[in-house]
Specification:
Radius of gyration: 20 Å
Oligomer: single chain
Helix content: 10-25%
Strand content: over 45%
Largest sheet: 15 strands, antiparallel
Shape: globular
Order of helices and strands: EHHEEEEHHEEHEEEEEEEE
Distance between the termini: 20 Å
Amino acid sequence: MATSLVAADTPAPDAESLIKAVVANQKQLEDSRKNYIFHRRDDVQETDDDGKVKKTEVNEYEVFFVGAWEIDRLLVKDGKPLNDSEKKKQDEQVAKEEKKARERIRKEEAGEEPDKDAITLSKFLAADRFYNLRRETIRGREVYAFDFAPRADFKPHNLSEKVLESLGGTIWIDEDARQAVRLEAHLLDGFKVGAGLASVKKGGNIIFEQEKVNGEIWMPSYGEVHLGYRILFSRKGANVVLHYSDYRKFKVESKITGYTEMDSGAKP
């Protein structure tokens, strides 16, 4: 990635304005994304407290969006296709997730918080400070990059705010499209979950990327999650690599289980 500081005489938005521009594009993005379905493969490693791999699993999903919310249908668990009973359970689970997503959309449209544990723009802006704005190039596209870190005076009230209080990193935003191209986040501190029976350790990191698909739509393209955690007295870790592929259009025929593919040749 080529890097250059934003010149003093070059007009450039501030970091908060860039984030708001990405969110302002979200509705148009959602309108396009609802016509797409795609594939995700998760390569999952479970490690012990020393970092040694104890278990490896490959799961595959069919993925689509309802509004801003990603809905996953499990197709392959630990390398094996689901049987009929498991498929039925997935249909039921996906229907529940779709219903939950539509309720979140209703709350957003009514000006309510969609989910207290969802990470939203307002929470992100309240929890973090943004600095070191610069121009870079990723995969031949001009992008703005800036760093973020938690504000010293921020007080979290729920799980999503605890996560934001613990994160620092870098965001890259496409200069023309005003879409997030890459996010790298690091856990600067650990945090507890629930009543303290579980916790996430300091030092984990997350990578998330998007790219323009089929010349018309920005979609998730790659991800990594590396975390250490404790549940009761057991200390473990997880390394997850997310591979996205096979983007294709579809026409919804029923709420969730019925769709017709329109273009199975849409590729990144």
